[in-house]
Amino acid sequence: MTGEPRLVWLKDLNRADVGIVGAKNASLGELAATMGAAGIQVPNGFATTAHAYWEYLAANDLREAIAAEISRLRAGAPLHEVGEAIRSRFVTAEMPPELAAAITDGYRELSSAALTENVDVAVRSSVTAKDVPEVSLARQQESFLNVSGPDQLVTAVERCFASLFTDRAINYREELGFGHLEIALSAGVQRMVRADLAGAGVMFSTDTETGFPGTIVINAAWGLAETVVSGQIDPDQYSVFKPLLPDHRRAPIISKSRGRKEHKAIYAAGGGTRIVETTDNERASCVLTDREILTLARWAVAVEEHYGVPVDMEWAKDGHSGELFMVEARPAALQSRDTAGRLHAYRLTGTGERLVSGVAIGDSVAAGKVCVLDSPNDTDRFTDGAVLVTEVTDPDWEPIMKRAAAIVTERGGRTSHAAIVGRELGVTVIVGTETATATLSHGDSVTVSCAEGDVGYVYRGLLEYDEHEIDLAELPRTRTEVMLNLADPAAALRWWRLPADGVGLARLEFIVNKYVKVHPMALLRIDELAPVARDQVEELTQGYDDPAEYFVEQLAFGVAKIAASRWPAPVFVRTSDFKTNEYARLIGGARFEPAEDNPMLGWRGACRYDSEGYRDAFALECRALRRVREQMGLTNVVMMIPFCRTTDEADRVLGLMRAEGLERGKEGLEIYLMAEVPSNILLAGQFAERFDGFSIGSNDLTQLLLGVDRDSAALAGLFDETNPAVAQSIRHLITTAHAMGRKVGLCGQRPSDDPEYARFLVRAGIDSISVTPDSFPAVTQHVAAAEREIAAEDSLDWED
Prior knowledge:
Layout: E1 7-9, H1 18-34, E2 45-48, H2 50-59, H3 62-74, H4 79-92, H5 97-113, E3 121-127, H6 134-137, E4 143-147, H7 150-162, H8 167-176, E5 185-191, E6 199-204, E7 215-222, H9 226-229, E8 236-241, E9 253-257, E10 263-267, E11 273-277, H10 280-284, H11 290-307, E12 311-317, E13 324-331, E14 342-348, E15 354-361, E16 365-372, E17 387-390, H12 398-401, E18 406-409, H13 417-425, E19 428-431, H14 436-439, E20 445-449, E21 455-460, E22 465-471, E23 481-486, H15 489-492, E24 503-507, H16 508-516, H17 520-524, H18 531-540, H19 547-566, E25 571-574, H20 580-584, H21 606-609, H22 615-631, E26 637-641, H23 647-659, E27 671-675, H24 678-682, H25 684-690, E28 693-696, H26 698-706, H27 724-739, E29 743-747, H28 750-753, H29 755-764, E30 768-771, H30 776-799
Parallel strand pairs: 16-17, 17-18, 18-19, 23-24, 23-30, 24-25, 25-26, 26-27, 27-28, 28-29, 29-30
Antiparallel strand pairs: 1-2, 2-5, 3-4, 3-5, 6-7, 6-12, 7-8, 8-9, 10-11, 12-13, 14-22, 15-19, 15-21, 16-20, 20-21
């Protein structure tokens, strides 16, 4: 571009124009000019230029006034006094006639294109600094929505100019050593998308909590996006698995979580916006359809590929036309603790009383004394290293946030200000606790844990926790596959950097217990429940026409998250293996479970699946797993059948699965058997004819071979997985399975605790060992050492 225009249309801008219109507006121009082929719609608009800003300052002699106030600040004047003085000069300044005319002419052209006299517009600030990361400047300046008419627009542009000198922006530039008169502000003017009549939100092309590059995360709320951006509400959250998006036969939405969405931002009479309560139906409904989720996800992929970096985007849906639009894009702020070659790992080892819970941001742990603050002006009350507790944060809080060991807020979701800044600073953050300021007492010692999945907890007292760094480059590669045992889908993405060979054990019952919470038969026979249980079920399944669909969807989402975390490596999913006493503790479970004297040897595993009391529930499990493999496309899921006592039982279960569309070999489906009953060992050849492989459940196998209750403290000394009977059984199974072309793995804790046991398994010819993520580095070293020893021995034998 040449010359010094006062405004430029977005379609005429590109990323190289940061010095003219700032990073935000240059990025919008890039989107408008280049992303049409990908179907991305950007609302029409224009941006004032840096030249216009300098013209405004010169016409009102503001340079000298700003410089004088900054000198006062550096001499010790309070920041809020200096900021107020500068902004007041902007308020009393007058827009130069030529600049006002240019803005008015642009507005009239925009209105004409929209076929209306005074089109509603959004006015957003964009800083023209080239050397400051855009993510750091985000939300330091002001935006104005529902601006209508030339006079309102000119006023909004003036207020944008003034917002370059908010207290937080002045403080940030002072800390950075960046000259206040070396940057300008561009006001972006865009036609408003009537999201107040539909919904809006933000979207990340990479998982912001873990840096996992395979998922797109979309947050959505009813009304305008300001409630999401400001962290005022708990929005819907959807995750989409990127690698499978190109296959339009698939719908790889791997999670959907309905937020509370208690409020929404809508148009206010006379301009601007106002906050109102949402309806019961809006709170119970998802903002976006599956088709809209997938459309936005494909847009995110296109934008990320174009820019070459993870991107943070804002989108809006027009309530009149139903069309989707992208209204902002910038580099995303990711968790800063981990790098490509190193992984920080945290594990809470102490126990204590849980005081509050909320949305965990990241996966770290921190501890300190509580400091409850109502306002960022209370900075003198804050002690370095304390736990900041407040209702909600905005950029004015950042000087305090940088000094905090942890941050806990009552409001906000994963896209709130506290979450974004926490990721950028690497600070432990929990948002959306609802009651933190009332529950946590000023001065009390607490531990803030985000290391337990997607829910973060604040514990009473200073609890012990482990923090260690794993150098991934030091982990050897092994011929024997070393896999992970993963229980919680929310924690699965934390470990994506570990070079594991897949997931050796994912338990359905954990997902049912934590996420579904209801006995599947209770969902199928809700009329048989007691009133209290029926009310609980109806509350959980609100928004579902069929309560059984709630079970299928929640189970599918849980499995899909785990499968996506290791794609395309195999993920072995064990069908449910609750005991009757465990099933009975689920909502509505007591109605459908008998009382057994010895549930460990009772109605569990495969025998349930073809029984009158559970057959329909097993069909729901199959339906969920089929959805993961066929609808979502995560064909790396391998199914495992637990506690199968006889070959007849195996045949009946496989027949039930075929009836539900889960057939060995169909779309590459493999079905394994959990080898944990002595009959599985003795009849290994017959079971191998029916299954694609085995996974040894060493705890149950040891218990049944030795006749020892594994939970009995009195018999603890007799429970020994290295006992010759157990070892010989494992060798026999491996030998028989290998002779028939079947693989054998083992999922258990013993290889994690005992290097010699890992060596035994390698020497026995095990194909894979599956361990907990925190044990993975040590077990990998043990396996590699055993393989080196065997190789050395083979070499010596050959030489002899």
